[in-house]
Design brief:
Layout: H1 9-22, H2 27-67, H3 72-117
Helix pairs in contact: 2-3
Length: 118
C-alpha cells in the first residue's frame, strides 16, 4: 500500500477489523486495538475541529451573500465551494464517528473473550 499521499482511512479500518476478527485473542491484540482506537479518536477530533471551522466559514460567507449584495458573485462561488467541502467533511466525519463506536464494541468483545480465558 502506497501511503505517500496519505492513508486511505477506510482501507486502514477495514484491514484492522479483519486482522482483529481473524486473530487469536490475546492481551497484546487488545492493547494493539486500543492503541489504534486512540489514533482513530485523534483523527476524529481533528476532523471535528475542521468541520466546525468549515461550518463557521460557510456561515460567514452566507452572511456576505445575504447582507452584502455587492460581494455576491465572488461570495456565491465561495459559498458553493464551501458547501461542497462541507458535504465531504460531514460524510468523512460520519464514517469516523461510526467506526470509533464500532471499535468500542470490538474492544468490549475482546475484553470479554479475554476474561473468559482467564
Amino acid at each position: 500500500m502506497d501511503n505517500r499521499y496519505g492513508v486511505n482511512m477506510r482501507q486502514f479500518c477495514q484491514d484492522h477489523e479483519r486482522m482483529v476478527e481473524g486473530a487469536t485473542i490475546t492481551k497484546d491484540l487488545l492493547e494493539r486495538h486500543l492503541r489504534k482506537l486512540a489514533w482513530l479518536q485523534h483523527e476524529r477530533l481533528v476532523h471535528l475541529i475542521v468541520l466546525v471551522m468549515t461550518v463557521i466559514g460557510e456561515l460567514f460567507v452566507v452572511d456576505l451573500v445575504l447582507l452584502h449584495p455587492q460581494t455576491h458573485p465572488a461570495s456565491a462561488i465561495i459559498m458553493l465551494g464551501l458547501a461542497i467541502l462541507l458535504a465531504f467533511y460531514t460524510a468523512h466525519y460520519f464514517f469516523l464517528e461510526n467506526t470509533v463506536q464500532r471499535w468500542y464494541l470490538l474492544a468490549d468483545k475482546l475484553q470479554e473473550e479475554l476474561d473468559k480465558l482467564s
